[in-house]
């Protein structure tokens, strides 16, 4: 009977922001603005979080030590009065032994020139093909038909 009371507990929740250190440009934390609303059931939410230490290196050589993470979510509903689990929300985490380094880098002027030449060459090739096709189309349309 005591375990039957767990069916009446609502474990609905909203996670506005979850991070493990300062945020760097472009980071997306997978649990930010997450909501789990239960209407007619109760159960146990488990979030398995894998935390990876991260160094973000700015162009200015400043280093920002932080962490990023991935998450797997699991929900186990309470199905009967004999279920001996209590409704709860668990955050289970594991720290990775490997550090990820993210560097901001400026592309060189030579890289810019190479990309510009590639775009111009591609444009030249496509316009050449279009010109050739249009010429053949006009030639075929205006060609006199031989009647014997």
Automatic annotation (TrEMBL):
The keyword Aminoacyl-tRNA synthetase does not apply. Pfam families: COPIIcoated_ERV. InterPro entries: Erv, Erv_C. Keywords: Membrane, Transmembrane, Transmembrane helix. Residues 6-131 form the Endoplasmic reticulum vesicle transporter C-terminal domain. The chain crosses the membrane at residues 112-130. PANTHER family: ENDOPLASMIC RETICULUM-GOLGI INTERMEDIATE COMPARTMENT PROTEIN, ENDOPLASMIC RETICULUM-GOLGI INTERMEDIATE COMPARTMENT PROTEIN 3. Belongs to the ERGIC family. This is Endoplasmic reticulum vesicle transporter C-terminal domain-containing protein. The lineage of its organism: Eukaryota, Viridiplantae, Streptophyta, Embryophyta, Tracheophyta.
């Amino acid at each position: 009977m005591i375990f039957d009371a767990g069916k009446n507990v609502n474990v609905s929740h909203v996670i506005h922001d979850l991070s493990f250190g300062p945020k760097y440009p472009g980071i997306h934390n997978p649990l930010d603005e997450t909501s789990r609303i239960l209407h007619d059931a109760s159960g146990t939410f488990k979030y398995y979080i894998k935390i990876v230490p991260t160094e973000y290196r700015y162009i200015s050589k400043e280093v920002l030590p932080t962490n990023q993470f991935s998450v797997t979510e699991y929900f186990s509903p309470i199905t009967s009065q004999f279920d001996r689990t209590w409704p709860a929300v668990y955050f289970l985490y594991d720290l990775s032994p490997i550090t990820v380094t993210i560097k901001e880098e400026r592309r060189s002027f030579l890289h810019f020139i190479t990309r510009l030449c590639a775009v111009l060459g591609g444009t030249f090739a496509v316009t050449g093909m279009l010109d050739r096709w249009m010429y053949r189309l006009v030639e075929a349309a205006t060609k006199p038909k031989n009647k014997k």
